[in-house]
Amino acid sequence: VYARGKGEVYIYGGDFSTPEGDDETYVINKKDADKATTKIVIYGGTFKNFDPALGKTENPTEGFVAEGYKSVKDGNLYVVVPATVDAVASTSTAVTEALAEGKSVVLSQDVEATATIQMSNAEAVLDGNGKSISGDLTGYYNSAVSTVGGTIKNIAIVTGCERSITSDKFEGDLIIDNVTTDKTGYGLNVRPSNNGDGYKMIVTNSTFKAWNSFTCPATFTNCHFGQGEYWVNKGYPDAYDRLIKPYTDVVFENCTFEKGFYLDLSAYVGTTVKLVNCSVAGVALTKDMFKNQSTSTSGNQLVSELDGNTALWYEATDAVWATVVVE
């Protein structure tokens, strides 16, 4: 990045480095003759072999990190984060250790998981910083992240493991924002005891391409639900990769569902699913699209015919239906 003339540069994220072995090119630099008229301010990003807080490319040295932010070293990487962030890490072990202390942790690079990341403190914050978690954690009890609550944000979970985000107990609300799950069996497998013990799951701005199930009250806002590919590659029906099965009240607001997405209501007994300003395959959902069946048959459907195919399927057992509210 090179600023000259009256150029102003504001950096909010991304990865910055020079080619391996290149010791002459500057990662961040101002033209010497234009130092007084140029500006570089950094609010986020990962910088390899360059500390933007010191700005050694300038003479005299000049830091580029914005007020209220700091540069944190992790190996040969420097990550610009808010001053309130406690730690930066790049391995599943280091992330788990920091989260156990209730810290706010930012990933410095993509993580190749060798073990499940454990969020054992509901005060913890896992900020993916736009990075991903990948790996091959096989087996039902392995997941990318196991949590008792806290915040998970700005991350793509693309592991080959069976579950992305899991929980078997809550010690606080679980907040999920700007998270993508793909190539996993379960996007959300959040099954805390006692329906969350009074805590809830709040999900925003996220994408799930998988089977999803949860036993705690939940809200989804500005989320997208689509087709995954984990279960079908193991010989199961492709519907397993586009399913959501709630066990308690849930609200979907401003959410989109891909054509054929499966809303499984078979776990519902006297609870409510609410769909507010939602759409399936680009078609807005309305009250008239629902047709409750008097008998339990697989494939009871939310009637939204597109190209002769049903856009969204739903199912319930023993003729016990959730109260479905569409607004």
Structure in words:
The chain is mainly β. Helices cover 3% and strands 44% of the residues. The protein contains one helix and 31 strands. The strands form four sheets. The chain has a 16-stranded mixed β-sheet that branches. Strands 10-12-14-16-19-22-25-30-29 form a nine-stranded mixed β-sheet. Strand 27 and strand 28 (283-284) form a beta hairpin. The chain is elongated and about 70 Å long. The model is unreliable at 292-311 and 315-319 (pLDDT under 50).
The poorly predicted ranges are 292-311, 315-319
How much is the average pLDDT?
Answer: 83
Annotation, overall tally of beta strands? 31
Largest beta-sheet characterization: 16 strands, mixed
> Roughly how many Å is the radius of gyration?
23 Å
Counting helices, strands and paired strands, the structural category is mainly beta
**Strand percent estimate:** 35-45%
Quick one: overall form?
Answer: elongated
Termini separation comes to 48 Å
Count of alpha/pi helices: 1
- The helical percent reads under 10%
Would you spell out the secondary-structure blueprint of this structure?
Blueprint (H helix, E strand, L loop, with lengths): L1 E2 L4 E9 L12 E2 L8 E10 L20 E6 L2 E6 L4 E3 L2 H9 L3 E4 L3 E2 L4 E3 L5 E10 L8 E5 L2 E8 L5 E5 L6 E8 L4 E5 L10 E4 L2 E2 L2 E4 L3 E4 L2 E2 L17 E4 L3 E4 L2 E2 L3 E4 L7 E5 L2 E2 L2 E2 L16 E6 L2 E7 L7 E4 L1
Parallel strand pairs: 1-3, 2-4, 7-8, 8-11, 9-11, 10-12, 11-13, 12-14, 13-15, 14-16, 15-17, 15-18, 16-19, 17-20, 18-21, 19-22, 20-23, 21-24, 22-25, 23-26, 24-27, 25-30, 26-31
Antiparallel strand pairs: 4-6, 5-6, 27-28, 29-30
